């Protein structure tokens, strides 16, 4: 019985004590999940020795100060093993037994899968194949910016190695020689419904990890001496290290060990009691791990530049009214202006000459991160830099951001600020065809929790909004357009987030046209044509799609009987529905022009017209609706 | 000069003629893009020999009958090299010179990136890393179903090997020993903005492909003899084959060859003329490739089962009213009922015991495809089976379908029918926390072109809608719930797509509550409570979210001054906005209850309440709104 050991387990402790700690982690995983009636005890139990050795001898962490920049990171990529993580937190003393046994309870911070509600969790995990990507991002940030000495440890399951994102991450880890990244794979052979793709064929994974530029160490995942040697090797490796640990799911409890029947199931009370007894009963071991860095290294760390939490004031670049400039060009120039702040980092998905980020690359190559054609890892790397306090901007084609949707979803769970831009939105791109057209991106971005969605129509608003985004929390999204259009606004015009711009208000307006981006130009053209026909309309530039300027919309809608929304996007989840949702109690008709069919390859002008969102269609919509209303009332 | 050769190039033709064909493919790529003023000639030129050998000697294809089931497949994963593909089509005689030179023109079918508008293109490509996944899916379908003898060839760029989805695909190719899949990688070293991750380091890719279970052949991609030997080896390989072809981007035109400046740029007219001259001028070679299979194999093919284009009538399983059954259980039972039709195939993302697909696995293991935790490839494989005519159903957690968003986007471009289900939607899942909750899935699925979105509240509607989905075109999505709830409808109730169900209509109703799935139960509970308070309301079951029952909604909204929508989903792009968008000209107030914060881990009931979408909140919303309205009018 080791349940009454009171002297803390320290880095110099004997293997027997580490084994005792592993038993405690198992016991706590069982107790927490049985108490909650939910959770994954067996997936936690397989990795108990891997966690115990890490916690005792390797994870340099000041548990009293999780904000310390010289702390290591431990990211639980197999997020369903949260009971193990919470048992580790109890072992280091940051949560107590009562909190542990209240896991998954109302208002608690110990959730089914870890989230940043916990100060020791930088990013939510639980969508498999993502934790390793964030770990890679955090390690990349440390390597690229001032060669910071923290080590990033991540624990993966073997099941998640089927996710392409794992290999996208390891590719970047190998390419960038992230020596301070160690990926521990808990190869317990069993997934949710049966054996994983390769079971205990550790050699299959080893060949892959090696081919992706990693050092590979294979261990018995229940042998603390082997684990210790592997971690030691990882610290001095000249490459990222992948430790493939052969383990037994549910190890320590004979009734559930290596059984495919026990995934994601808490043990019933009687079986839990039996398992806890088999493991030697509850214990209260306390771990004092190695703590962050020695004094010398700490001093070196102190001398490193730390990003300021407050972004400096940046003057957005300005453009001459009437000049034809693409919003993507303005975005690039804005990034360059922001880049004077040395805390700004820009990531590209190998399309920098299309999105505008290439301008930043030229100006600040040391803070430009090429992610190549790997959008999931681009977002994960952006998150990694953001976790380290850098102000991060990332861009690719709007359409291709959908590749990273699940990453954006996870990052929106209390994650750090990430500033995105998506170029080549809509049918406006012209001849490249539908696969390149972002037509669902507004819907995707709006539905993310806490997001901001901006869609400028001209270069001055684009530049200002890009600069404003730099200060926003959560995920912000700037939708930018391929073509060059006239600068509409004077250079001193202000574009507050949540605002809008009203064009040509008149007492006799028969309609309000709501556009953003390229469709604002179509609306303005339509307004000119309608004026000639004796049908005056006003135009609202809805550059802030989320938050939306509900007040301006309601004001317009109460004054004109017709509101026409025009968007280069699908009708669902975009501008039209956002506007309609604000106006249900205002007695006006909202007609929504959007892209309803599969577009083809043609000039931008003809594509806009074929999609029914050109000035011609707007004019016709207003004319027909007003004529019909007049006829009805006659 | 070979421009006037009139005898067709056949499989037995000399290498010189194949080289002449390669020159023609280059010339045509240049001519088409220069005429269009758009496109990627240099990315086409690097692969001309690879294409010429394939077309002449390996691709067994009846160009007069693309629907033949014994045709091979050629999938252009590097979709931006469409000019090469179109040049190949001219060489086999299915498009003429006029159409080629009208590439990317209005109404034309030769788009910037290939789409299924062309009868020889089964799936759109152009989002990199996807064509190889669809090719894998099509090869998997042939291997799993009756060991069909067609070969699948796909041409990738080296840049796209950075996409995780490529390795997700090769993992499945290796695991399933897809001997009839050959991946040709055009390693031309240059991406859009510069050198790719590994440039011409073909060995780096070779190690990876081998580790993923593929045979690897390295060739000089401009040497037709080497290419020929590689293709020959691929045909007799006992594994999928990856051919790594070292090539030069823009090969054949000295002014642009191997230059990073010429990605995605058509040659100006003068340079094009010079390049065409350098390549020997335009030619009109005609290829007569090997054609599909010999007579013996063809007979064998004929004896194989061909899926019927018309699904048989299937009786949905039924459930007793009042019984508590999860919609995911009903979905599983419906799949089993559908499975009596031997043309139905079901794919799982290793959560079959959660989604209900496990029931199908037990009943029809031979038509159950385990995709493991790899949602992108699950969708790509589903597309592959669907391309082959199978009726495909695939399911995972609603949240994790977001991982495959870009695949769904591409599949929605005139792709084949794919029937999806997403389980564990919303905060209703309870203790597992926000990472597992599908809260953005309705927005994502609605915005896909041509999609159908269904969200049943009980087992009878779930089963019927799953059966109905089996006949739908495009992408259909069934949103299913974790918990078990009472069966609401009699077993003979009908649930047409686009319909709704009205509960408790009365002349004095003060409000219409609109719910679907779990929130319908909350609406019904609220209605009972409100009736006690003397506030009668009606409830609309919006089980068909897209298409939406606009008529029923408008009818309700004109009769009750208040409409309350309740959804276990984010407020953007979901039920509330869909409803609001239908009702803008009806003078009623729409109040939208949805999940606005980051949810936590708790019981389903408490999660619904904390999110503000429980019966209690619905009651309060109606009570407060009606009271306020009464006060205002007093």
Task: Write down the oligomeric state.
Answer: homodimer
The strand order across the widest sheet of chain A is: 8-7-9-10-12-11-17
Which structural category do the helix and sheet elements of chain A fall into?
A: alpha/beta
Shape of chain A, please?
elongated
Q: How far is the first residue's CA from the last residue's CA of chain A?
A: 94 Å
**SS field, number of helical segments of chain A:** 24
Plain-language structure description:
The structure is a homodimer of 634-residue chains. In chain A, helix 7 (164-175) links the parallel strand 2 and strand 3. The longest helix of chain A has 22 residues, at 15-36. Chain A has a seven-stranded mixed beta sheet, with helices on both faces. With 634 residues, chain A is α/β, with parallel strands linked by helices. In chain A, helix 1 packs across helix 3 (48-58) and helix 3 (48-58) crosses helix 9. Chain A folds into three domains: 15-288, Rossmann fold, CATH 3.40.50.970; 324-486, 3-Layer(aba) Sandwich (Rossmann fold), CATH 3.40.50; 501-633, Rossmann fold. The model of chain A is unreliable at 1-5 (pLDDT under 50). At the A-B interface, helix 7, helix 8, helix 13, helix 15 and helix 17 of A face helix 7, helix 8, helix 13, helix 16 and helix 17 of B.
């Amino acid at each position: 019985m080791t349940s009454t050991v009171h002297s803390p387990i320290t880095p110099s402790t004997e293997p027997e004590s580490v084994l005792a700690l592993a038993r405690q982690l198992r016991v706590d995983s069982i107790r927490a999940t049985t108490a909650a009636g939910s959770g994954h005890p067996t997936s936690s139990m397989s990795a108990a020795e891997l966690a115990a050795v890490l916690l005792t001898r390797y994870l340099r962490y000041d548990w009293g100060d999780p904000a310390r920049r010289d702390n290591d990171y431990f990211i639980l990529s197999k997020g369903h093993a949260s009971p193990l993580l919470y048992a580790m937190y109890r072992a280091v003393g940051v949560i107590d037994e009562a909190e542990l046994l209240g896991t998954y309870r109302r208002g608690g911070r110990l959730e089914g899968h870890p989230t940043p509600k916990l100060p020791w969790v930088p990013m939510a995990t639980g969508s498999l194949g993502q934790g390793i990507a964030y770990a890679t991002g955090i390690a990349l940030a440390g390597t690229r910016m001032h060669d910071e000495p923290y080590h990033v440890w991540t624990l993966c399951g073997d099941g998640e190695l089927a996710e392409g994102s794992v290999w996208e991450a390891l590719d970047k880890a190998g390419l960038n020689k992230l020596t301070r990244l160690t990926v521990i794979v808990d190869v317990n052979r069993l997934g949710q419904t049966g054996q994983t793709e390769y079971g205990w064929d550790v050699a299959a994974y080893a060949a892959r990890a090696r081919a992706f530029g990693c050092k590979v160490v294979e261990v018995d995942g229940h042998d603390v001496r082997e684990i210790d040697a592997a971690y030691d090797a990882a610290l001095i490796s000249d490459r990222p290290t992948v430790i493939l640990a052969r383990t037994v799911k549910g190890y320590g409890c004979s009734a559930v060990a290596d059984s495919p029947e026990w995934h994601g199931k808490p043990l019933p009370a009687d079986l839990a009691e039996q398992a806890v007894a088999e493991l030697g009963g509850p214990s209260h071991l306390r771990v004092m791990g190695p703590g962050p860095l020695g004094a010398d290294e700490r001093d070196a760390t102190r001398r490193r530049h730390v990003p300021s939490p407050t972004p400096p004031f940046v003057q957005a670049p300005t453009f001459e009214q009437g000049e034809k400039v693409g919003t993507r060009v303005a975005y690039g120039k804005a990034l360059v202006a922001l880049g004077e702040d040395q805390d700004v980092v820009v990531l590209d998905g190998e399309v920098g000459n299309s999105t505008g980020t290439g301008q930043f690359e030229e100006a600040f190559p040391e803070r430009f991160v090429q992610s190549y054609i790997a959008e999931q890892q681009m977002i994960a790397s952006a998150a990694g830099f953001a976790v380290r306090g850098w102000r991060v901007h990332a861009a690719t084609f709007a359409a291709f951001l959908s590749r990273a949707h699940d990453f954006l979803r996870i990052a929106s769970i209390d994650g750090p600020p990430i500033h995105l831009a998506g170029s080549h939105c809509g049918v406006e791109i012209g001849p490249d065809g539908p696969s390149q057209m972002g037509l669902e991106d507004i819907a995707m971005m709006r539905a993310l929790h806490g997001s901001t969605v901006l869609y400028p129509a001209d270069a001055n608003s684009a530049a200002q909004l890009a600069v404003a985004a730099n200060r926003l929390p959560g995920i912000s999204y700037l939708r930018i357009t391929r073509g060059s259009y006239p600068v509409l606004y004077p250079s001193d015009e202000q574009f507050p987030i949540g605002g809008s711009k009203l064009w040509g208000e008149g007492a006799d307006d028969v309609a309000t046209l709501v556009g953003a981006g390229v469709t604002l130009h179509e609306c303005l053209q339509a307004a000119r044509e309608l004026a000639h026909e004796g049908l005056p309309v006003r135009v609202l530039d809805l550059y802030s799609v989320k938050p939306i300027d509900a007040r301006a919309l309601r004001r317009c809608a109460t004054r004109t009987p017709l509101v026409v929304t025009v968007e280069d996007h699908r009708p669902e989840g975009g501008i039209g529905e956002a506007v309609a949702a604000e106006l249900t109690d205002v007695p006006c008709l909202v007609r929504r022009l959007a892209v309803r069919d599969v577009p083809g390859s043609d000039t931008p002008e003809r594509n806009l017209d074929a999609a029914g969102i050109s000035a011609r269609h707007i004019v016709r919509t207003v004319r027909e609706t007003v004529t019909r209303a007049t006829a009805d009332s006659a």
